[in-house]
Structures are given as C-alpha cells and as structure tokens.
Please model this.
Amino acid sequence: GASRRGSLREENLTVEQVLSKYSDGPDSGVFTDGSASPNPGPGGWAAILWASGMELELGGGAPDTTNNRMEMLAAIHALEAMKRPVRAIIHTDSTYLRDGITKWIYAWKERGWKTAAKKSVKNVDLWQRLEAAMAPHEVEWLWVKGHAGHPENERADALARKAVPGSDARA
Model:
C-alpha cells in the first residue's frame, strides 16, 4: 500500500537520492504508460519508479506524436533516469513495446531496420535509444492488461494523460 512508500516530497529527498536507492527488492518496479488522443496527435508519457520504499514519478509530452512513441519514451526515460546498473522490472500495457524490445528488434537489426515485408521499421530512433538505455541494466518486461483496474497501470495512464500538452486532465 501507499503507506509503505515514501514520496519525494514527504521524505524531502532529491531525485538523485531516490534514484540512488533503486534496488531489486520486493517493493521495486517501474510502471509505464503512454497516450495520444487522437492517435496520432498530442501525447503524453509517464513512468512511476518504486525502489526501497521510495517512489518517483516522471512524465512528459509532445504536441504531435503517436501512442507507440509515448509508450516507448516512458520506458526510455525511466531507464535513463537510473544512474547505476540495476535489475529493472518494467510493467507496460503495450504489447508493441514489450514484443518490439524482447522479440522483434533482433530480426529488425539483422535486416538493417527493415520489417519482414522489407519496409522501414517505425520509430527506429526510439528503438535504438531504448536499446542503449537498457544496456547497463538487467531488464525484465512484464505486460499488464490496460484499463483493467491494475492500480499502478491506471495511475501511470492518468499521469500520461495529464502530461499531454494542452491537456486539462487531472491525475
């Protein structure tokens, strides 16, 4: 529950102090989500990092993007925020993100970033950035069903919608 996790504000810690506490303990995890509405259109992303009883929220947006790019940026920013090698468990409701980074990327790279149909892979810039962000870490990808009442996924979704430029959504 929330009582086990301190927040940045309550503990009066810097972002760096929270990130330095990241570990693979029982209360560790990363929950990500992205949103674009309409798709393509304005979008937002969010990541919630838990570690050693601490919690950190990250988020951002873009005026003209896609849902898939926002899903990817959430994971990228979470991994880039980790300043030392960690075992990271990333929870996502995006099968595109999970399957792209765990299955499809190997064949794409072998084919020079082309699909099996010989078309250019979409979002190559972000796949390459995600791969680089993962390099120092041991990353496990877990899929969670979106909009199914999973508390952290619902919260990440609300934060991502709130991060959409011009959004009046409230998390």
About this structure: The beta strands are 29-36, 41-51, 54-65, 87-92, 138-143. The radius of gyration is 16 Å. The longest helix spans residues 95-110.
